[in-house]
Each structure stands twice: as structure tokens, then as C-alpha cells.
Amino acid sequence: MSAFVKLEHVSKAFDVSPPWLNRVLERKPRVFLHAVSDVSFEIRRGETLALVGESGCGKSTVARLIVGLYKATSGRITIDGQDMRSADDTSEAARALRRRVQMIFQDPYASLNPRWRVADIIAEPIRTHRLITDRAAIERRVAELLGCVKLTAKDGEKYPHQFSGGQRQRISIARALASNPEFLICDEPTSALDVSVQAQVLNLMRDLQREMGLTYLFISHNLQVVHHVSDRIGVMYLGRLVEIGDKRQVFGAPEHPYTRMLLDAIPDLKMTGKARTPVAGEVPNPLDPPPGCAFNPRCPRVFEPCTRERPELLPAHGREVACHAVTRMARAG
Ligand SMILES: Nc1ncnc2c1ncn2[C@@H]1O[C@H](COP(=O)(O)OP(=O)(O)OP(=O)(O)O)[C@@H](O)[C@H]1O
Ligand SMILES: [Mg+2]
């Protein structure tokens, strides 16, 4: 199957330089933070790719690059063969592409306008994209969307604050679905919710995916959630993809020492009674990353090339891994 979403060598650097006057007077240099470096991956139609990794590794930046909220410093992003760079112009093609990609955020409080009735919140994308123009037909469509997320047409009369956190996230999902998207980017969609509510929302999202054939990019730092929802997993460390592959491969037999470290820290998914090992060490300062492999200061398998040479993401054991130890062993064996 061909790729529906494709990132090719995508990088994003933020200019975090001190203000101009300070640079001149104090002779401070320009400073760039490389939030995402040379990231390439594909998502097939109808599948869920999850991105995981500790805070600050660049997950949300990847999401924002894909929806066009940020411009990539270099590299290329295409959705169904169309370049996302065209999405910021006002052409009909750009509008059509934006309709097909929607984002769901962690905090439904912040993303729903508190002064609007829920029905108007959900109808907004329908009006913006002029999908339906007849008032009564819009009303019927909004009622249908509320039904899709297990709310009632009457709920449309209320305001966001009259709902619980889980219900509010359902409202965000209904709004995202209003433009008939094909691809949803979910950035920590359930992290703010109670565990029991999380499961309901995740199951709802999975059912909607099946019914509507949606493609998901799912971002979470919770590996148990990721295990539940995804088909493939991409592990990020300091702006780079370090391992990507099928869920069964990556969870069942993690190759990258960082993936292993993350998995060792969570309660055993297979309930074998294996003890947990907390994640050791800290993520380095992104403004001053270590030379070679950025993971080398924390890595239990560090050896000579790791501090010198950055490992490339290469095929190994049925997935792709960026690790000298792994790829060298794979080549030797
Ligand atoms: N607008 C910005 N300007 C400057 N730096 C930024 C900006 N957005 C993100 N960063 C930096 O880029 C890096 C990646 O951030 P990002 O938010 O993508 O990480 P994340 O993996 O989503 O983390 P979290 O799990 O905490 O949400 C971090 O070092 C962050 O401080
Ligand atoms: Mg984030």
C-alpha cells in the first residue's frame, strides 16, 4: 500500500536568539533550537502511527508541521501526494487539503470557544468549508455528528462548560469530523482525562476510525495508551526518530536502547511480573546536544563510534533503528 502521509527529511529549527540589541551590545550569537531533525516516515491510509518519547523530543512540533501550523525549515511533507506547503495559500486546492486534515488537542477547554453553543462550534467547519449551506441541513448534520460521538442533539443547545472533560473531548472530535476529514492528528488527546474516561474516548476514536476509514497520527507519552490504539510506533529522542516499526515488533522486541528504557519503565504489558525500572538520566539540553548519537550519555550499550558519529535510521530486524550497536550487530549476524 502506498503512503498516504509522507515526511521526507523534515527539520524544524526555532530561532531562540536573544533580542537584536543584546546580540550587538553583548556580542551574543544567534541561537537555533533544532526541535525536529531529519525526520522521515510514512503513514498508510487507515492506519494509526503513534509517536512516543519524553517531553520535548519534538512530537508536537511534528504534528504542527504536518497540519501546517509551522513551516518546515527543510524537507517535504505530502498528504495523498499533495505538498502541504501549498496549504497556507488561499487557493481552492489548499482549502481542500486543509479540510482533509484535522487536529485534536490535549486540552478541550482551551480549544472550544466558551461563548458558543456546542451546535455552533460543530457547525463552524461546515460553514467555513461551505460543505452544506441549507440551515436545516446543517442542523441535521450537527445532530448526526453529536450522535457519532455518543452525545444527543439536545446537547448542541448547551455551552462547553456544561460538559465534563471527556464529553468536551467528544465535542472536539465531533467538530474535527464535521469537515469530513480523512486524516486526524491527535496530540495527547486523552492525557488530561481520568483513566476510566480515557478508555471511553480511545475506544470511541477507534470505532470512528473503523467506520470512517480514518488515518491517525497519535501522539502520547503514555505507552500503554499507545499500545492500545496504534498499528505502528515511532520513537523520538531529541528531535530525531530513533526507532520505527510495527507495534508488535517495537513493543515485543525493542531494539533501540532508548525504546527498551521506556518500555522497562512501564507496568509489564504481558503481566509476567517483571519489575519496572524507572527511566534513568535526563534528556540533554536541546541547545547543546551531545556529539554523535544524542542518546550516548544515557546509553547502556555506548561504545566508541557513538560519541563521534550520528547513527542513521537503518533497517534492522524488521523495523528501522538508529543505533550503532544494533546495526553493527545486524550486519555482523
Ligand atoms: N515555538 C517554539 N519556539 C521555540 N522552541 C520551541 C517552540 N515549540 C517547541 N519548542 C522546543 O522544541 C522542542 C520540542 O518541543 P515539542 O513541544 O515538539 O515536544 P513534545 O515532544 O511535544 O513534548 P511534550 O511531551 O512535553 O508535549 C522543545 O525543546 C521545545 O522547547
Ligand atoms: Mg507535545
CATH superfamily: P-loop containing nucleotide triphosphate hydrolases
Helix percent reads 25-40%
CATH class categorisation: Alpha Beta
Structural class: alpha/beta
Q: How many beta-strand elements?
A: 12
Beta percentage is 15-25%
Give the cofactors and ligands: adenosine-5'-triphosphate, magnesium ion
Number of helices: 12
> What is the straight-line distance between the termini?
30 Å
Specify the overall morphology.
globular
Summed over residues and divided by their number, the pLDDT gives a mean of 91
Q: Summarize the main sheet.
A: 8 strands, mixed
Low-pLDDT ranges: none
Commentary on this structure:
The protein has 333 residues and is of the alpha/beta class. It has one domain (3-332): Rossmann fold. The protein contains twelve helices and twelve strands. It has helices at residues 20-25, 59-67, 92-100, 108-111, 118-128, 135-148, 165-177, 195-212, 223-229, 247-252, 257-264, 324-332, and strands at 3-15, 32-44, 48-52, 74-79, 82-83, 101-104, 183-187, 215-219, 232-237, 240-246, 314-316, 319-321. The strands form two sheets. An eight-stranded mixed β-sheet has the order 6-7-8-3-9-10-12-11, with helices on both faces. Helix 8 (195-212) links the parallel strand 7 and strand 8 (215-219). Helix 5 runs parallel beside helix 7. The mean pLDDT is 91. The structure holds adenosine-5'-triphosphate and magnesium ion.
In short:
The chain is an alpha/beta fold.
